[in-house]
Amino acid sequence: MPPHEGMDFLAIPTLTGTVATLEPLAPEHAGELAEAVAEENLYQLWYTRLPAPEAMGAEITKRLAGHAAGHIVPWTIRAGDGRAVGMTTFLNIRAEHRRLEIGSTWIAPSAQGTGLNTEVKLLQLTHAFETLDCIAVEFRTHWHNHRSRAAIAALGAKQDGVLRNHDLWRDGTMRDVVVFSIINSEWPTVRLSLTEKLRTRTAA
């Protein structure tokens, strides 16, 4: 039996860590997530596509419809204190090729720099490589989103290339997309690195 058969790439399990929990995205999360995206006007960053606070309900509906159609797996990110502080998804799911992308992720400024993003990625990568038996996990970001590019590289992902003029942006400009990936042979080292980073940060 091919490794991907019998594995549910569209399941949305609750993934629990020390400083972060991923739970299935739900309509009742709209109020908390609207507050999170409003922090420091996060949704106004020009190089991201984040929902405005008043559009959060529609964004959740859109992501849940994407899941129902078999396109994405959406989670709400909760911090250790129980607050809903962001969203993340599996997308570009290709179960037959045992690969997917982690993306459409955002985290409230108050939860950034706490180790939460490191654990979110560790939880997602562990699920992808160890439960779904993926052979590759991809990350994509805007060329000008330098913080995101640095964070992806810090995970241990390698840059595959740049897709020039890949997206028409909301203001009419074109977006160059930087593509990174982690492959299954790299996962044990990446897992060890992320685990140690998280241990060091949470012990500080």
TrEMBL record:
Transmembrane region(s): none
UniProt GO MF annotations: acyltransferase activity, transferring groups other than amino-acyl groups
Domain N-acetyltransferase: from-to ranges: 20-179
Protein name (database record): N-acetyltransferase domain-containing protein
Native organism: Pleodorina starrii
